[in-house]
# Entry
Amino acid sequence: MDYAIELQNVCKNYDNFKLDHVTMNVPKGSVVGFVGENGAGKTTTIKAILNLITVDSGKIQVFGQDHVEQEQAIKEQIGVVFDESCFHEQLTAPEIGKVMSKIYKEWQPREFDEFLRRFQLPAQKKIKEYSRGMKMKLSIAVAMSHKAKLLILDEATSGLDPIVRDEILELFLDFIQDEEHTILVSSHIISDLEKIADYIIFIHGGKILFQKNKDELLYEYGIIRCSEEQFRKLDPKLCISYRKNQFGYEVLTGKRKEIGKIYRDLVIDQADIENIILFYVKGVRL
Ligand SMILES: Nc1ncnc2c1ncn2[C@@H]1O[C@H](COP(=O)(O)OP(=O)(O)OP(=O)(O)O)[C@@H](O)[C@H]1O
# Structure
């Protein structure tokens, strides 16, 4: 498989946090959803990929090239959107377009203008007068106006209302129609990721807990709802974690089919991604 991004054993130490041997990859032509709770290490990983922070050890490749040695060439091909605007607040959107035309060899002024119209971003207002959502849309317009092959989006849709979010998800789906195009997107809006992602990478406390094909994930994982007696009979090797509530036990399994074959009387519901994350983070591990 061809990868747009590959990380191998990447470590970065801060005082109270470390990226701990992060190994993950983003297959070319796919949408990868990057999930994890606040402070799990998503932005740190993305900053490492973009060489905005120096890692302590490990290897990072983008389009098969070293992310430091080939930084300039790589960045030409990447569109990046962070949850905070990094544009000069005194400029207007058209002025930002002019700045970008000097930065990117493949800058597409017409496409950019079209995005400004589509997103209804006023040409005469300065960025400091933009709302959070408007700034976000401007970042997306810039990211998608220089013939990027890879979009890296860190909480890019978090400030947007559901209608605009939907429009932007459509844009991303259009973008991904080209098989050379790839998206890495971190988001807390899991329902958005369920709509567009092919793979899910889950980071927790600086460690990658899993990278899985989304459909396989939804197929393999399940939540068993059972009594204490049934719970005691479960094979812990087939289960991941559990939560106890007033009605009994809820148990996350990654082996739904096996459990179903062995324990025929158990109720096993499909687990959505949000629940899977919740059980990994809040559940008692087995
Ligand atoms: N420059 C820094 N110096 C020290 N610690 C840092 C620095 N940058 C990030 N951290 C720490 O690294 C940890 C991971 O932060 P990161 O921003 O990567 O999380 P995240 O998964 O993106 O979270 P969120 O969903 O809240 O954006 C946090 O504990 C944060 O305080």
Residues 157 and 165 are 6 Å apart (CA to CA). The radius of gyration is 21 Å.
